[in-house]
TrEMBL record:
Species this protein is from: Actinomadura violacea
Name of the protein described by the UniProt record: STAS domain-containing protein
Length: 101
């Protein structure tokens, strides 16, 4: 199979104090959720707002190109690690739905 289809380029946008480990975790999660889908490109946004009054200051968002259609998933949580975990699940669910239709 074409390597591009199995390992699409993932572009990142980050905002706030996002660590390299969090970025690597997001890349692993997105790749796992999209494995075998034929995704051709992915953009991931990771953001942390430094405001302790917010209940969910961390946001993880992904936009992937699947079979010429855009797949969008996002999650907000108290920590970026939790948001990434939620994002992985939401991407997998949406990708499976897109394959079914």
């Amino acid at each position: 199979m074409n390597a591009t289809l199995e390992r699409p380029e993932i572009r990142f946008l980050t905002s706030g104090e996002v660590t390299g480990a969090q970025r690597a975790e997001a890349e692993r999660a997105v790749r796992a959720a999209l494995h075998g889908t034929g995704a051709t490109s992915v953009q991931v946004t990771l953001s942390i707002v430094a405001d302790p009054s917010l209940p969910r200051p961390a946001l993880a968002r992904a936009v992937a190109e699947l079979d010429g259609r855009r797949l969008l998933a996002q999650a907000a949580a108290p920590s970026l690690e939790e948001a990434i975990g939620l994002l992985r699940h939401r991407i997998a669910v949406r990708a499976s739905y897109q394959r079914a239709v």
